[in-house]
Design a protein that fits this description.
The protein has 547 residues and is of the alpha/beta class. It folds into 3 domains: 55 residues, no CATH class; 236 residues, Tandem AAA-ATPase domain (Rossmann fold); 223 residues, P-loop containing nucleotide triphosphate hydrolases (Rossmann fold, 3-Layer(aba) Sandwich). It has 19 helices and 21 strands. The strands form 4 sheets. An 8-stranded mixed beta sheet has the order 17-16-18-15-19-20-12-21. The chain has a 6-stranded parallel beta sheet with strand order 8-7-9-10-6-11, with helices on both faces. Strand 16 and strand 17 form a beta hairpin. The relative contact order is 0.10.
Length: 547
């Protein structure tokens, strides 16, 4: 097939489609043309046949369209459609999300939409409205992909569909299930797909990311671009976190073919000025990479910040420092002096702060913890709903046991699944926004498993018994109470026992990598003087003795 290109030079080239998902190209010699081909996915030069071979994939197709003088991304420059939602109570920003989703996925092979919104702004409701609109156009098969913890039938996203009485029931599946599915042959691709918590796709080399990219490519091969990504991070830690998400939602929109190239050339070149946008080099003071990336992804990404569209009750974060006994500090220093690995030391100190250690057989030895007593005090003052996060399975089980002893109904959410009371039971309210059940209920969860796509606004108290090492999980879990639907002032309590608890918390909030900590950092924190103005508990610890 002959095609005429206009850039980087005017000439005719010949394309031949292969069954091996490759394209053969015969083109005249031109160094600029060769450079264009070399930037494509799967490029190689067949010296014997003297032909260029590239992958037959959406990114390369979009680049070939640009070479022909066709802008494959003009859908991102169009004004948003004004879609009438099925529900009258949608807030303006939720209508904006719906209009964005429909407009950017409407009749374009390279279209797609990414909603980068804070937790609790109603992305799920906008996704439900989007699926219902697609269904009204005669489409039937939809997938809703999300983390496992968000897809329990009595909690998370399925519960949202029931709550809003949606007439559409997509096929719910986890990212892990997608990996298994795409390995099979003759799988029928959906008419539309929602990718919730799409920040999980930031690493392009993971199996889940490759599987989702494969699904999007198969959908586009049939002219279907109804692909919507929902991210809870309007300001990514690293701008390159959005590179693979844009490859799924708008392949080729970012000219750079991998994250390394994007990082080195960020904010210098963009694809559209007529056909290519170019930005000059900027002064150091103006080189805000995230803002410039927003400009480069304009039309594809819609940012929604809670502070700009919601008026939520005040949320107060309290650091409750529990004074460790001298005995506990001696054990902590002994661990510090006898452990050579930073992460191993940090793990053992976290366990010690929670009130337990593992012996050589990995059995849990509980010695009691003043932190547990402080947790129970906050629990009893929380009313009849509370949410508690802990970073270890042993801690979660112990907290559940203590809460049940205090006659609280418990729902446990961690890597083992959901057990006990459901999100629906925890949240159940009447038409006047009063709790239907006055029983005392508590959700005890791991920050990762219980931190995504769940709604716990029936509580106005969230307690971190301990954290894990994932800053994203901390940010997500902290918004399960402080979100749309919360009507009362709420508080987040951080229980800090050993000084290293504060070190972990600060690093998580600043999105710093805990693996970069040195042994000296930990030793310094163990001997760090404490601010006397903080809340402090004088309860003593029991000494953990490992036989």
């Amino acid at each position: 097939m002959k095609i005429s290109i206009v850039q980087p030079t005017k000439c005719d080239i010949y394309l031949e489609q292969n069954t091996a998902k490759t394209l053969k190209i015969i083109a005249p010699y031109n160094p600029f043309l060769i450079a264009e081909f070399q930037a494509m996915i799967g490029y190689r030069w067949d010296k014997e046949k003297r032909v260029t071979i590239i992958s037959d994939c959406p990114r390369n197709v979009s680049q070939l369209m640009m070479m022909k003088g066709i802008n494959p991304f003009n859908i991102f420059d169009k004004e948003l459609l004004n879609i009438t939602p099925n529900r009258n109570n949608l807030k303006p920003h939720q209508k904006l999300m719906l209009n964005h989703n429909i407009t950017r996925t409407n009749q374009s092979e390279m279209g797609g939409a990414l909603i980068a919104g804070d937790m609790g702004v109603g992305k799920t409701l906008a996704a439900i409205e989007t699926l219902e609109y697609w269904a009204s156009q005669g489409l039937k098969e939809f997938w809703y992909v999300a983390p496992k913890s968000a897809l329990h039938p009595f909690a998370g996203i399925p519960q949202e569909f029931k709550k809003w009485k949606s007439g559409v029931t997509p096929e719910f599946m986890t990212y892990e299930a997608i990996r298994t599915l795409v390995s099979k042959t003759n799988v029928l691709m959906p008419d539309g797909i929602i990718l919730d918590e799409s920040s999980l796709l930031k690493n392009p080399t993971t199996l889940r990311s490759q599987a989702i990219l494969g699904v999007s490519e198969q959908m586009r091969a049939k002219g279907n671009c109804r692909i919507v990504l929902l991210s809870g991070t309007p300001a990514p830690k690293d701008p390159t976190d959005w590179w693979h998400q844009s490859e799924v939602g708008a392949p080729g929109l970012l000219r750079e073919s991998n994250t390394t190239k994007l990082r080195s050339r960020l904010a210098v070149i963009e694809m559209r000025d007529g056909l290519h946008r170019t930005y000059p080099h900027l002064d150091e003071s103006q080189n805000d990479k995230v803002k410039l990336l927003y400009r480069r992804l304009a039309g594809f990404v819609l940012r929604i910040r809670a502070s700009e569209c919601l008026t939520l009750p005040p949320c107060t974060e309290i650091n409750h420092y529990i004074k460790p006994s001298q005995e506990l500090l001696r054990v902590a220093k002994s661990i510090s002096n006898n452990t050579t690995s930073t992460l191993e030391k940090l793990q053992k100190l976290r366990q010690l702060s929670d009130g337990f250690l593992y012996d050589e057989d990995k059995k849990t030895i509980w010695g009691g913890s003043a932190k547990m007593d402080a947790m129970k005090e906050w629990l009893e003052n929380s009313g009849n709903r509370c949410v508690i996060y802990a970073g270890y399975t042993a801690s979660i089980d112990k907290i559940c046991e203590e809460c049940e002893a205090l006659e609280w109904k418990v729902g446990r959410v961690d890597g083992r699944g959901w057990k006990g009371i459901t999100e629906a039971e925890f949240q159940a309210k009447d038409d006047e926004d009063n709790l239907i059940n006055d029983d005392k209920m508590v959700i005890v969860a791991h920050p990762k498993s219980g931190g995504m796509s769940l709604n716990f606004t029936a509580s106005n108290t969230l307690i971190y018994y301990s954290n894990d090492f994932d800053g994203q999980a901390r940010m997500q879990s902290s918004k399960r109470v402080d979100r749309l639907g919360q009507t009362r002032a709420n508080k987040i309590i951080n229980l800090l026992h050993l000084p290293t608890d504060e070190l972990i918390l600060n690093n998580l909030k600043n999105k710093k990598d805990l693996q970069s900590l040195s042994l000296n950092d930990l030793d310094e924190y163990l001997s760090k003087p404490k601010d006397e103005s903080i809340i402090e508990s004088e309860v003593k610890d029991e000494l953990i003795v490992i036989p």
